[in-house]
Amino acid sequence: MKSKALYTFLSVVTLGLSIALLLGIKALTTSFEYQIENNLAGIDLVVGAKGSPLQLVLASVLHMDNPTGNINYNEAKKIAKNPLVKTAVPISYGDNYKGYKIVGTTDDFASLYNAKLATGATPNKSMQVVLGHTVAEQLHLKLGDHILSAHDLVEKSEEVHDEELEVVGIYAPTHTVIDRLITTKLESVWDLHHHEEEEHHEEEHDEHEEAHHETKHQHNEKKEITSLLLSFTSPIGLLTLPRRINEKTNMQAALPKYELDKLYQYTGVGLKTVLWIAYLILVISSLTLFVSFYKMVKERAFDLALLRTYGASNFQLVRMILYEGIIIGVLAYLTGFLISKIGVSVLLQSIQTNQIQNLAQGLPFMAYLQIAGLIFTVIILSILLAIYPIIKMNISTILSHEK
What we know:
2 domains, two-stranded antiparallel ribbon
């Protein structure tokens, strides 16, 4: 191996590249599937404004798109009262802070993602917010800090609200969508968009607190939300409620799992193409290994024949070649593993934004084991083809022709 360093290097590199691609594609696929499954959070149905169902799901479940519009909160609550509905979580948004969405919702929203407070408390009044772990970490925010939200969902929005939002809590990391959201009470989002009414309520609050709450309750009944996230007590809800909502109301019902599976089928084409390229490189690597081993056996024919005259068996000669193959395989696998880890990490970091969290998800041990088994099967096949000259060796002919 040392005397044929170039052959060894090429064999390790080509095999390592195919391993890196195989591991990288499987890691991306696993991460994508994990994030979709993890972020569904038991949400069976999303109810929102008429429009694209996929857009509604991306906006309301993954928070990666603009909403299709708003729906009447009072109408949405009627759907929530259906006996087939287990949980109904309203969400409302339209503002951001430095690119991170501010979502008005209820305490049940955190329960969807099993989010626990790392520090602080949940909001008990309007204009208080809880930060997702990623938000607090990236923006270096802490309890007691005040932020000014900007209108719209893009970071460079020029319209900034005058009202400050106070940070009262920070969630522990969940590796779900809530890590990159700023959550608050529904009233906060409504109040931010109704300055005059809010000022009127604030003037009344000091002297007529009870009247204020009653007025605000009536006021909220006429408010709008972005969407309603539903889970059902039984599968019957999935069969009956979506059609009823789509046909008999001015709202639409979208099935997150169905829409995201459909999206995955489209995006999966690219991943499958790269996967086939990886297998093609693996075939080329196998041919390179075979040529390398075969050439080595032919060039060392005299040495191998001489060893036979000193009593070495065919198996001992084959074992020498086998050791070289195993060493190349181990080096290639380690090379491929490192390249895939670095490559996937760099790729995910390059696409990570406020709207897209870090998707990195480790491959299960069995996946590494399967690829290792595939690689060593390829090596064994290459060796079996290359050792043919050893098995058919004519010792006297080889030694008599050596000058």
